[in-house]
Design a protein that fits this description.
The protein is of the alpha/beta class. It contains 6 helices and 6 strands; from the N terminus they run βββαβααβααβα. The chain has a 4-stranded mixed β-sheet, sandwiched between helices. α4 crosses α5.
């Protein structure tokens, strides 16, 4: 029987929300915006998740948590912790493009589609963005509708709006 992968989790409460971030030995794997229990996340991902952290050469859970907390306090605009992105090549290409959206700015789904060389694939880009396992760090909250409206966000539109306001210093 194959050994299940072991992941490490920490919870970060913020303004009534509770985020759970999960790391592997390679980097941050998941940020859950709903405060899902570790046992439920473990079952969903098919891995073992334990509370606490890893301090391998590539991932320091305490540093990653500190970076996220600094961002949520308005004191950090970018992240340096390594990421362990798990997705299709197209999803990863889209998520990497999201990393190019500057702090405090937004882009439309169409602009992201054009940036990845698929200008007619805004819906496919939207699906990839919707599957983003690393919200906040991979800033899918910075993607808006072409008319400037707030649309689609795994954490809900209230949280999306709050993150955008945070980045505007409000």
């Amino acid at each position: 029987m194959a050994k299940r992968e072991l992941l490490y989790a920490s919870k970060i409460p913020w303004e009534g929300w509770c985020f759970v971030f999960v790391s592997s030995e390679r980097g941050i794997r998941l940020i859950d915006l709903h405060g899902t229990s570790l046992s439920e996340l473990s079952e969903q991902l098919g891995v073992e998740i334990v509370q606490g952290g890893t301090k391998t050469a590539s991932v320091n859970q305490d540093l990653a948590r500190q970076e996220i907390e600094e961002y949520l306090n308005g004191d950090r605009k970018s992240f340096s912790s390594p990421l362990d992105m798990q997705g299709t090549p197209f999803q990863i290409e889209v998520w990497n493009e999201l990393l190019n959206i500057p702090y405090g700015e937004t882009r439309s789904y169409g602009e992201i589609a054009a940036a990845v060389g698929r200008p007619r694939a805004a819906r496919a880009v939207g699906a990839a963005i919707g599957a983003n396992p690393l919200p906040i760090i991979v800033p899918c909250h910075r993607v808006i509708g072409k008319n400037g409206s707030l649309v689609g966000f795994g954490g809900g539109l209230r949280l999306k709006e709050r993150l955008l306001l945070l980045e505007k210093g409000v």
